[in-house]
């Protein structure tokens, strides 16, 4: 028989399930943090290179 056999799980499979889900949530949160920091850094580099975008409501560019 192919597929998943629940009898192969360890006796404390609830802890395994909880640990797996907590790990996934932590990885998702870490990805969100890293993506936000990457975007912030990229935006700061673009501001330093080109100045603020006129659509952002800023009328004077830093010199």
TrEMBL record:
Keywords: Membrane, Transmembrane, Transmembrane helix. It comes from the Bacteria. The chain crosses the membrane at residues 15-35. This is Uncharacterized protein. It comes from Actinomyces ruminicola.
């Amino acid at each position: 028989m192919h597929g998943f056999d629940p009898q192969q799980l360890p006796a404390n499979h609830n802890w395994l399930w909880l640990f797996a889900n907590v790990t996934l949530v932590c990885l998702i949160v870490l990805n969100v943090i890293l993506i936000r920091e990457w975007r912030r850094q990229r935006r700061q580099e673009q501001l330093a290179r080109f100045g603020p975008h006129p659509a952002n409501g800023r009328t004077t560019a830093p010199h």
